[in-house]
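Title: [Solved] FAS1 domain-containing protein 3D structure

Original question kept below for reference.
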Amino acid sequence: MLQVRSASPDVSVWFHAFGPPDNVTLSVDAAGVNASIVSPDLAASNGILYVIDHVLGIPYQNVFKKLSTDPMMKITYDLGTQRNFNEQMEDDKKKFTFFVPSNEAWEKQQSKNPSAMKKIMMGAFPGNTKMILERHLMANEAMELEEMVKQGKVQMARGGTIQVTKDNGAKNRNKVAPQANNKGKPESGTRYLVEWDGIVAEVERGDIECTNGYIHVIRDVLMKDKDVQVNTAAVPVGATSGFLSFTLLSFLAAKLLSL
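Solution (posted by the thread starter after getting help):
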């Protein structure tokens, strides 16, 4: 993905290129709207034109659709297919605020805890995966970053709280990179930080407006090693239930035979 600044103050445009080398698809994203480039590289006397299939800045996708089509959110979307977590965000009658870990955020978790992440990606612990994702989701409310900064702590679907703070560069200067906000409301150079239980994640793309809420892409996953314990005793719930059922039946059979 390539990020460039648009003519509108503090609004970034993101260019995506995906697909096989012989059939690359190009798209552009700004203010929460993704558009396909249908006619590229049209030469003009003072520049280059690109014809796109949607007007940038007027949302037309709900949170589910945006999550399923944005390349930066692919891993989160794939994980959300477990236990049908994603499906709730198709409901246009409800509102959502989703802090979506970027692909790179999940890759950082992979390097820190490869065994746990392998199990999560394989779907071996869908309950744990859903719990982690619920920690990033605010149900029944659509909130921009500035609203959450003013409110302080906000309640998440899992029951815990997170806090969104604003940093203008004086604090955490060496910890976060400058953020380009999609809507252009905050002052230039503003960075937003999301904090949960001692973990601080920078907002990489904020205020991505959808028809039923907002998405904020973050650079870290709000999870700890204890969320997925992988060891010789760790057995998926279904396997454990089957083992207990077999043990109980064996016990009852032995008792009947002894009568």
